[in-house]
Amino acid sequence: MGATRALQPWAPLDFIRPLIRRLALSADEISILGDILSTAMPVRRRQDVVFEGRRSRSVYLVVDGLLIRCRIMRDGHRQVVNIVVPGDVTGAPSCFFDVALYSVRTLTNAVVAEISLDTLSNLLDTHPALVGKLFWLFSCDAALCAEHVVVLGRRSARERIAHFFLELLTRLQEVGLADENSFQMPFSQDVICDALGLSLAYVNRELRSLKQEGMVVTDNHKVFVRDVKALSEIADFQYRYLKPSPVSEFFTSRRAPWRKVVGAHAVIHGTTGVQH
Fold first, then answer.
1. Using an 8 Å Cβ cutoff, are 193 and 199 in contact?
2. What is the pTM of this model?
3. Is 141 in contact with 89 (CB distance < 8 Å)?
4. pLDDT(241) > 60
5. Cβ(136)–Cβ(247) under 8 Å?
6. pLDDT value for 38
7. Beta-bridge partners for 50
8. CA torsion, points 160, 49, 47, 8, in degrees to nearest 10?
9. Which residues partner with 112 through β-bridges?
10. How far apart are the C-alpha atoms of 127 and 202, rounded to whole Å?
11. Which residue ranges form the domains of the chain, and what is each CATH number?
12. Alpha carbon 173 to its chain's center
């Protein structure tokens, strides 16, 4: 994977808490999450976690960092399928095919926890509700990819760029990596180009236009969305594909008190302190 195994499991409480809440995990399921996070490994930026054309039999829970799922075309051009953020599970559907259909590559230094298909199969027997919750995460990924098809097929270049920023802002807000109207964008504009099928010159021209109109400003790898409402109107941005029904509507589980969450974090680390 182009990484060295961490000496200790790495999973700060500010990652665990939202994931537990999002998946409505029971105390027993929190313990299993600890086992999964014990496989967490740091991966350097610009390294492949999944290699297109190679056999893959795992999915990966992203603990930290930004990644992309992409395909390298025969002429050398790259198509970015989607951006992967902390809390996402990536690696599907490639793990269900003879070889991986896409590569998954880190944009920044990242931490990922591997979940093999064998592990998922075993959990189906012992904890089927937890597997169902993980597949709920897969459905969120599928919704992103379906929306991407709509963006590329039915929106203008300007609308694509506006949609890209609004989607990333919304997703990063969900995991505490963006404030009301800004976020760090620790990657170059070529990622935007490859995600939206646009040339660098075209992207730069549209960004200048959006800046002049007071809607979006990019400065030193930080994006400021000055007018979310106006940008949403340009992109016809619909939030519903990013807001799935709560997992608790489909899978029942007992909610562990937050003091148990902190206790689970200590079990995961083998200490009562929070390690970052």
1. yes
2. 0.85
3. yes
4. yes
5. yes
6. 87
7. 104
8. 120
9. 41, 62
10. 50
11. 1-155+255-276 (2.60.120.10), 156-235 (1.10.10.10)
12. 12
